[in-house]
Amino acid sequence: MDRKKILQDGLLEEYLLGELAVEQETAVSRVLQSDAELMAQFRAMEADFERMAFENAITPPSEVRKSLEAAMLQDEVGSSKVRSLDVPQRKNSALLMRLMVAASLAAIFALSSFWLYTKWQDSEKNLQVLQQQTTGLQNRLADIEKNYRETNSRYQSINNPNVVPLLLVGNAKSPDSRAIAYVNHQTKEVVVNAKGLAPLDADHTYQMWADVEGEMISMGLVSSNQEYVALAYIDKAESLNITIEPAGGNDHPTVERLISNVSL
């Protein structure tokens, strides 16, 4: 056996860790004793392993130390003679080296696993936040699209050539009120812009009525907070009327609280 074979087959590392068979270990030991350069390489490798082991060493639990002390004390009591172990010193060092390297690798693996787990947890949280934000944006876009379609539909309906705009001006009971009714007799649609009506308290609301041969028929409630309100179209209506009613509306108009009307 020569230096080339030892290096090519990785026998030097196995010799350091005590993993060679007796014959191979003896052969490598002989080459080391006769080859100063290979011995220097072996010493450097041994120093590197030892440095790595001490840098990453983990303090063993106190229970291990207590167990060893108890075992040693029992041996001293049971035997008056100290027996020497017939084990080569290099093998003891190699065993210690293997244990220290294994402990170091276990520590590195534990730290790496904890770091990866923490990063995974952070990624999960970030993903959940991103999903919630995406859902919120999708809902907002859906609302915007819905409002756009409704607004566009209202705009087209009031700008139709067949639409008749009617201005409802407030009387002495509500002189500052204004409303515009857009009536399409062909499509039988009525849209009211009620933004000009005076605000009411929470206990009252506006309600529009159609006068058909002296009978007042409800067309629906009108909110001053809405720009365009679609109401029921009533055939043969002679006039449109707005009254102030209790919140929720009424089944018959409160005539003394009529604030505006216009003839068709």
From TrEMBL:
Membrane recorded as keyword: yes
Molecular function via GO: sigma factor antagonist activity
Keywords tagged on the record: Membrane, Transmembrane, Transmembrane helix
InterPro entries: Anti-sigma-K/W_factor, RskA_C
GO BP, one annotated term: regulation of translation
Bilayer-crossing regions: 95-117
Any single Gene Ontology cellular-component annotation: plasma membrane
UniProt-listed Pfam families: RskA_C
Domain Anti-sigma K factor RskA C-terminal as annotated: residue spans: 101-254
Name used for this protein in its record: Anti-sigma factor
Organism: Pelagihabitans pacificus
